[in-house]
Design a protein that fits this description.
The chain has 360 residues and is of the alpha/beta class. The chain has twelve helices and 14 strands. It folds into two domains: 66 residues, no CATH class; 241 residues, TIM Barrel (Alpha-Beta Barrel). A nine-stranded mixed beta sheet has the order 3-4-5-6-7-8-9-10-11. A three-stranded antiparallel beta sheet has the order 12-13-14, with no helix packed on it. It has a two-stranded antiparallel ribbon with strand order 1-2. α2 runs antiparallel to α3. Keywords: 4Fe-4S, Iron, Iron-sulfur, Isomerase, Metal-binding, Pyridoxal phosphate, S-adenosyl-L-methionine.
Length: 360
């Protein structure tokens, strides 16, 4: 796909619909572009689909770099004998298709099976972009899910995900939000979207203005590497923040992508600069086809030790593991406590001993 370049060499990208339509989805096209053997790519994409839009493709500097690893199929996806297909037990907590009710007061609503780029480490790798999720967002499925929400007053918070809900055209997204806002006990609406990172051109001024009407509305996005924080991504986040939408970020700890303290620190500080609050740093989910991305939990704890106290609390996410079988998110924190009694004895972020009198 061609794009215009200004005198300052800033790319002038086509509209997001054209970018999405021009995505690489064929293994042969990817092999031709990078001089790869197409056979392994075809084997992987026969099970797990491929999509890399031209914008995200442009962020790849060379094969094997952190952007490449997130987007390009790897034969190791077919060699995973450790991880189950449904790592979080979502199917067991789905009272109606397309809706997951795991926590009493909140629910997950899946409205599309499509993403702007199919991440190779995806939690829903078994479904996203495949026939397994083809019904997501259908009128019948949405009606059933919305009926369940209406009939369950304990639910105060709904997270819209998929796939990526911001890939819905305005003509489908805005009516969906309108219907949700009519459910009186739904206090909070959240959107989980990687679009500000993978296809920021989707965040138009028109979209931001439309979303502004549905407050309190929150968006959690997903940046994994500092190189994903581009001028285009910054502009998308600025538009959403200017519309009064609080932005959080959920990073996944990925081997060969961001599994060192320097990269994570740079990423978290960079996110604050574009008005995105680091929210979670996730230990990789046990999703089949992703075992080669997983890092030891000790590595994540060591990274947190390099963040806590060494950088602003605003730039320090919660390191967490989403427990298998739908048991929920578990915060993982470095252990500073040495003794708990009349005196609290602990070490600080510098390793220095400290005491605090414990009231009784």
């Amino acid at each position: 796909m061609s794009m215009q370049t200004s005198a300052t060499t800033t790319p002038q990208w086509p509209r997001w619909q054209r970018l999405l339509a021009a995505s690489i989805t064929c293994p042969q096209a990817l092999a031709d572009r990078f001089g790869l053997d197409p056979a392994p790519l075809k084997a992987v994409t026969a099970r797990y689909p491929l999509r890399i839009n031209p914008y995200y493709l442009s962020l790849i500097n060379q094969p094997g770099d952190p952007i490449w690893r997130q987007a390009v199929p790897d034969v190791r996806e077919l060699e995973d004998t450790v991880c189950p297909a449904d790592p979080l037990g979502e199917e067991d907590y789905s009272p109606v298709p397309g809706l997951v009710h795991k926590y009493r007061d909140r629910a997950l609503l899946l409205v599309t099976g499509q993403c702007a780029m199919y991440c190779r480490f995806c939690t829903r790798k078994r479904k996203v972009g495949t026939r397994e999720m083809a019904a997501a967002g259908s009128a019948a499925q949405l009606d059933a899910a919305l009926a369940y929400l209406e009939q369950t007053p304990a639910i105060h918070d709904v997270l819209i995900s998929g796939g990526d809900p911001l890939l819905l055209p305005d003509g489908r997204l805005i009516p969906l939000l309108t219907r949700l806002r009519r459910i009186r006990h739904l206090e909070i609406i959240r959107l989980g979207s990687r679009v500000p990172c993978t296809l920021p051109q989707r965040v138009t001024l028109k979209l931001a203005a439309a979303l502004k009407k549905f407050h309190p509305l929150f968006i959690n996005t997903h940046f994994n590497h500092p190189r994903e924080i581009t001028p285009e991504a910054a502009r998308a986040c600025q538009r959403l923040a200017d519309a009064g939408i609080p932005l959080g970020n959920q990073t996944v700890l990925l081997k060969g992508v961001n599994d060192d303290a320097a990269t994570i620190r740079e990423l978290m500080r960079g996110l604050l600069k574009i008005r995105v609050k680091p929210y979670y740093l996730f230990q990789g989910d046990l999703s089949r086809g992703t075992d080669h991305f997983r890092t030891p939990v000790e590595q994540g704890l060591a990274i947190m030790r390099e963040l806590i106290g060494h950088t602003s609390g605003l730039a320090t996410p919660t390191f967490a593991l989403d427990a298998p079988e739908g048991r929920g998110k578990i915060p993982l924190t470095p252990d500073y406590l040495q003794s708990l009694g009349d005196k609290l004895i602990f070490t600080n972020y510098q390793g220095l001993p400290c005491q605090y009198p414990n009231p009784r």
